[in-house]
Every structure is written in C-alpha cells, then in structure tokens.
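Possible regression after last week's pipeline update?

I re-ran a chain I had predicted before the update to compare outputs. Posting the input and the new output here so someone can diff against the archived version. Not blocking, just want to make sure nothing changed silently.
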Amino acid sequence: MSQPTLEEIRVASEWRPTLGVLSVYLGFDPADRGGAWRTQLRNGLDAVLEERKEAEHDQRVALRATAKRIIERFEDGDLRPPPRGEVGFVEVSEKPGVEHWWGTSAPPVADACVEYGADPLVAPLVALTCHGADRGVAIVSSERVRLLRCSEGALEELEDWELSITSLDWRERKSQSTNNPARAQGVSSSGHDQFDERLQHNRQRFLGECGKLAARALEEHGLDQVIVFGPAKDVESFDGGFGSAKAKLALGGDGDLISVPTGKLIDVVAEAIARIDGDRDRELIERALGGAKGGSRGSLGLQETREALAEGRVGHLVLDGAIGEEAESLIRAAFSSSAEITVVRNGLAAPLAEAGGVAAILRY
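New output (post-update):
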C-alpha cells in the first residue's frame, strides 16, 4: 500500500457514487500498543450513523453495511497498518462497492476520523501528499556512497558503492637510495604529492560516476528529489554527476553519516525533510504574497483566487489546510485547471492569515 499521487487524488475527487462516500483518515502512533485508533474509528463511524439516522431507508441500510465492512477490514490481526497512517475512500452501498485505500508517511491531520459526503474529502490527503512524497537519500563520503529510499516513514537501501584502491598505481613507491639526503627528501615529497593528487582525482571521478548512477536509479524508482548528506566538497563532486537529470538535489546536512546504520538514520532524514519542505513552503508563500502586493502575478483571498482559478490563471495554489470546506472547493478547481497545489498548516500558514488563508501564484 503506497501513498497516492496528486493525479490519483484528482481522479478520486471527481468520484460521485450514488449513495455517497465515507472518507476515513487514521493516524497510527508506533508506540501505541493498545490500538486507540480502533476506538477512534468505531466512534467516528457511530457518529456518522447517528447523524444520518433520519435519512432515507436505503441510505441508512447502506451506511450500516459499509461501516460494518470498514470495521471488519481492521479486525484481522495479521493486517498491519502502515507506519504512520491510512486513508480510505469507501463507496456507500449495501453490498461491497468500490474502495480506495492508501498508506501515508505521516499521520493525517483531519477534524474527524470519518466523514460522510457526496464525494471524497481530499484536502487532508493533498496536504499529506505535498509533504510526504517518497524521496531519495544519498549518504556521501570520499570513498563510499549509499543510496536509500525514504517511503512511508521508513528507509530502504537501494545501492551501496565503494571506491576500491587496489591497483598498483595507487601504492606509494619507495625512492631509490641516494647519498644526497636533500635530494631524497625532495623525491619522497614529490611522490607523496603525486599520490595525493591521483587519490583526490580518483575520489572526485568516483563521486561523479556515483552521481550518474544515482540519477539513473532515482528515475527508475520514480523519485524526483534526493536529499544528500556529506562533506561539502564530496557533495559537490557527487552533484556534478547529475547533469540534466530529472531528480533534484537538496542538502540534508554536512555530517559524516556514512557508517551510521540505516535504522538510526530515520530521525536525521525526517528532520531534514521537515526543514526542506518548510523552506520550500515559505518561499512559495512569499512569492504569492509578493506577487499580489506588487500588482503582478499573484492573488490574495478566497474571492480573488477563486476567480483566478475559474479563469485558468492560477499556476500554483497555496492555502491553509485549516480553512475547512472552502479548501475542498479550491482544490477541486485547481485540479480542473491543472494548477499545482500546496497545503500548509500551523506556523507555516501564519503569513496567509492576512489573506484569509488563501493565495496563489498566477500564470498571467
């Protein structure tokens, strides 16, 4: 079970089953052994049934049957949830209908565990996808490179390359004996210098080749970003091998992590991802606000942005995920006009408060 792409969410947002959809958002705490999320799920389903107790007979029967199937899905003790969360859009029907389920790398942020509606509740899932996409991770040193995949809160080793220094050309040769100590010292120094230069050259070449191999591997795995950790000079040589590759590099840190076990890297990687995503979101917000205030390619507020979306002028929609139902309509409008979408929350969304939580970078 993998996290959805924005295209998959767009398709789901257009889904309109006859009797509606139950949108289920579950967050899992790895330290919780009591299964509190199961209680939250049952309470959420009970709340929906209570709210619809006066609905037409067919709808009430279908809701009860659908709620029962959702509970049964998670009663199997062998079914383990993803590391941090699971999201499902389930057709309301008396007999089994269409269901869409995804795992998420971060716990969902939603006002309720279960929502009933005519169409899926997609805004919280878009927010997760904006910040929880799979990434590549490269741990770089002068003579070794590790390439990993960060997916759903876990790290998976993809490649491990190491420079081999076994050729006779790499060995330092002793100078011939001489009666002139000064001359002997000069020869020895020259030999050291040549060895060091050759070693450095081969390290740089090795890192550049690893960059090429990493770029190819990232493309094969469908990853468009790699977070690189390592000394600046080594990262620079590694970056040189990427050329015009689709995947883009982001600096995670300059610490020496090459020998750190994979299981102990996840916290460092998670912190780097949060910082990189935060910097990206702040830059987007600044561009949108600056463009609007400068009278150029930006819009502020719900009404102005909604009009720009209707005209197909929005290139990138930026909104506070806490604005509620309005987020759903804006996201659907952005999907229909092929605009990019970024949903932010909490402190990152603070600069959007003056614009009612909504801004956009315009195409024209």
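Follow-up from reviewer: compared with the archived run. The chain has nine helices and 13 strands. Marking as no regression found.
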